[in-house]
Amino acid sequence: MEQTTFRSLVIEELNGRFSKTVKTRSIGDLPKNDLLIRVQYSSLNYKDALSATGNKGVTRTYPHTPGIDAVGTVVHSDNKKFREGETVIVTSYDLGMNTPGGFGQYISVPADWAVKLPDELSMKESMIIGTAGLTAGMSVLRLTEHIKPEDGKVIVSGATGGVGALSVAILAKLEFEISAISGKTAEFDFLRKLGASEVIARKDFEQENERPLMKGVYAGGIDTVGGSILDNMIKSLQPMGVVTCCGNVATAKLNLTVFPFILRGVSLIGIDSQNYPMPYREIVWNKLAKDWKPDNLVDVYNEISLDELSDHIDLMLDGKLKGRTIVDMES
Fold first, then answer.
1. In whole angstroms, what is the distance from residue 163 CA to residue 158 CA?
2. pLDDT confidence of 99, banded at 50, 70, 90?
3. Is residue 177 domain-shared with residue 259, that is, in the same domain?
């Protein structure tokens, strides 16, 4: 391979302060693994923003390159499963956490982390989906194991975020009636365009309610934030209802009794996108490429360059982004 250097967003720590700078790095600096991949696109996730600001629960040591999503071309393979020239997706596992991630133009990863890009998806589409869409797909997969559209309405929290927006889009594709929760009143029309039949202001749904049960309104739900919203979702489920949970940005604590689980037989299913087993990842990616592929992917993303990434990390931390932000690593 002729090229030995590449551009990368590098997070550095100095005296407890963290900086974000695009730098030139050497391929020789990457860890030795099965696959060396030239990254075409990455995407910005909340975990990347945490890594970029020194959250030691995400990334232990610095300097570091975040980016838990990447799609690109295999330029070297020591594993028979993948050939040079094949296009692959790498999401989660340790990518971008303590292994140099997709905010660099090259990554080096174990073959077990990679999935072949389905024929029905472009590289750009795969990163619009990314970890957020994969998490949404996992949530929908688990939800639809238990309920069908005819069972009643479903509710989605954090609906203007990456996971929430794609959950709404996938559920709409499957013809569910959807109530979407959002704190961004300016984006209510955006959520209706994605397929929500009802939009609920976050302030109206997150109020703490001391009652152990509320009126059973929803057959199921997808929660991305935790806290009182998840409490109220669970308490608002119909008998045998199901909620999936994949986030705790509000809080990791629940303030519940066991009554929803005992008296209504409801279920709470946790979604771990980081270490989701590979056979299920392949199932979800293929569904997302075909039957579950949202009709409105172009409505849920914004494309930026590597040089614009630092500013967009700040915008994400300020809650000023909606949908997905993908990074063209070649621009």
1. 8
2. very high
3. yes
**Domain limits at 244?**
132-270
In a domain, 68, yes or no: yes
| CB-neighbour burial class of residue 195 (10 A; exposed 0-12, middle 13-18, buried 19+) | buried
**Residue at token pair 């203007």:** 160
Same domain? For 165 and 259 the reply is yes
The token pair at 11 is 């997070």
Q: Please count the structural domains in the chain.
A: 2
Q: Looking at the structure, tell me whether residues 91 and 168 fall in a common domain.
A: no
pTM for the predicted model, two decimal places = 0.90
> How far apart are the C-alpha atoms of 110 and 78, rounded to whole Å?
9
Distance CA(31)–CA(265), nearest Å, equals 48
pLDDT score, position 1: 54
**Is-contact 68 45, C-beta < 8 A?**
yes
- Rounded CA gap, 58 and 282, in Å? 25
**Residues 6+ away with beta carbon under 8 Å from 49:** 313, 316, 317
CA 107 to CA 27: how far, in whole Å?
A: 8
The pLDDT-based confidence of 295 (bands split at 50, 70, 90) is confident
Residue with tokens 């929908």: 140
The answer to the question of residue 76 being in a domain is yes
The rounded Cα 258 to chain-centroid distance in angstroms is: 30
Mean pLDDT of all residues in 239-252: 94
